Every structure is written in structure tokens, then in C-alpha cells.
Amino acid sequence: MLCQQCGRDFKDQRQLRQHVRWHDKKYRCKHEKCRDKRGFACQKDLARHQRTHDQIKGTQCPYCNRKISRLDNLEKHLTRAHKNIFWVAVISGDEATVKLLLQDGGDGKPKDIDNNMALVLATAKGHAGIVNLLLDNGADIEAKGNPRLTLREIALTGAKPIGWSGMTPLAVASKYGHEAVVEALLQRKAAVNNNGSESPLTYAACRGHASIVKLLLEAGADVNARGCFDTTALYLAAATGHEAVVRLLIDAGASVRGRGKMIPLSQAAREGHVAIVKLLMDHGAVPGPGGSV
Q: What are 25-36's pLDDT values in tens digits?
């Protein structure tokens, strides 16, 4: 098969079509700074060219300070010289490096790990910008932490292990009090209720994160949902002495009467939280089965 423009012979039509694209160069730069409106054979080359208009020529590696001529060469340098740079960047909150490694299928991201694990890790560290980047690049907003892979990768970067096995990003952010991340996830319609497991609301209530509890309630969290051990958010808040959270939950319609051994009034009294005991009794909790000390 001959190319009509240069006469070169090819074995099959696929090779010929691939060659013809080099003649066509149909991808043209339309940037205002590009005087000659250069043409390119593929979108990847065009994208690399367009980035040169928006960056200062010459850059520097943020980790070893080596001078790099172009931004795409910086990506190659990060991959070769800093093997675990993706995880280092995610953990440290280096949004620029994460963005660089994600764009155009950057090779700096480990091939055997998808964006979901990185999403849960960024959520646990409270990096809202990186969370949004990963979600924009296909991470599952309902992904759950995998303890074995997670601890291995965290160990490689020197970070301390954190316990979020089986938790969604919203649950992780609620547990560790990262309000900005919670807001980002809620804006993207993350599920606020988990069936048969601890919910983001119970994690936030147990840790006393009142502002996050308020956000979750406004997003439609079930105030009376029960977790793995039949506990409610009100029971956990009362047991841990978080009066502000108890008030928020009661105002949202939380039941002050418990079930079985999980009774908010009884647990608050056992832990010596006098103000919470009074608050619960003022809202209908009474001594006796289902609500007593």
C-alpha cells in the first residue's frame, strides 16, 4: 500500500493510516501565543506543545532541586529518580506533583495500584485538593480502604499506618475531622449512610467533630442509624462526652431512648458526663428499661 503523498510502501492499511497522520497534522495549536499555529500528528504532542505556552521555560525538581528543561521531562525525572514519588506526593499534599503524574497517564503512579487507594489515603491525610484531583481522574468516591496494600505503600513512604480498613472516603474524612474534605465529597454526592456498618455520622459523633456532624445531617444522614454493634451516633457522642454533638443530634431528632445495652443515658452516667445526663433527661430520657442508669 502506497502513501499518495510521499510514495512510501506499507504492509497493511493500519500502518498506512498511521503514517498519513504525520502528513495531515490536523491537530493545530490555537493558543494566542503560538504565532505560526503549529500542527501536530496526535493530541498528545499538541497537549505537550500547548503546555509550553503556559509555563516558564525551565523548571526544578521539588525534591532534589535538579534543573529540568521542560515540564514533561520533569515527569520522567520524578518517575526514574524518585520511585515512590506518587505516594510521597499524596501523603505530603503536594498537589502540583500529583497533578503532573496523573495528567497524560503519568508513569510516576504505580501500575498495580489504581486511584481508589490513593483517594482514601489523601482523604485520611486531609488533602482536599488531591482528593478532587483523584476524583476527576476516575477514582471511585465510594472506594473502601484495603489494609494490606495500604500499609505496604504507606511503609514505603515512611508514613504512620492509619486504621481505615473497609471505610469509604467520607467515613475516613469524618473520623479524622477533615472538614474541607467532607465538604468536597458531599458536593460530589458521596453516600452519607452505610447499610450494616458504621456511618460517617457515627465516626464524626464519636470523635466530637461537631461541624462535620452538622454537615452530614444537612446532607441527609440518618440520625438514628445503627452501626455494627447496634450503636447510634447519639450513644457514641454521649459515651465520649461531646455535649455539643449531643445537642446537634437531639435537635435533629435523635431518639434519646436506647435499645438493649446501648442506652445513651446509662452510658453517659457511667462515664460521669453530668451535663449530658441532664441534657438527655431534659429531652425525655427516663430511668428504667430503654433509658435508665
A: 777 777 766 766
